[in-house]
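Section 5.1 Outputs to date
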Amino acid sequence: MADLQPQSDPWLALAIDLTFDMFRITITRQKDRNVLPHVHLMLAFIFSLCKLTESPDSRQLGMYCVERIPWPELTSFLGKVIELEGVDGRTAKAGLTLDFPHPERGDSRPLPEDYLIRGLVWCGKFFPHHWFSTNIDEESRLLELASTHKTRAQRVIYLGICISKARHQETCTRLIHANL
């Protein structure tokens, strides 16, 4: 990954800029619950970028990406999600300890978008080891159960806490603690 550098590859730089420009547009739709799957995947990606900046081999690429994240808009979006959904105590604890949040007993199935990113290099250690061990047929994976929105919102909040902790975004941390 050390040879992939936005400064020497204009196409990579354009792809990164396009990704975060689209994300900026998405998170301006603060009350639209239909954007949560996209936000969830982008936050999982951003969380992996925060880890990428810790590695000497990929620090420059990671920092290039992290510098393009629309932090003020993201903080505002997360604040609105917290305001609308609240912060579950288990979610807050999981975020502060960086442990993946396990849903309540009856809801322990992956979110539909989890299947889309399973196996990608950047989310290799994001999911718990047995997260995909339940046999669910292809069509059932995409079903939005009644609990899916709440689970997804809590996952977005969890990732916001993790990113805040990893990047020391104090504003985001204050919002989360104020709404516990």
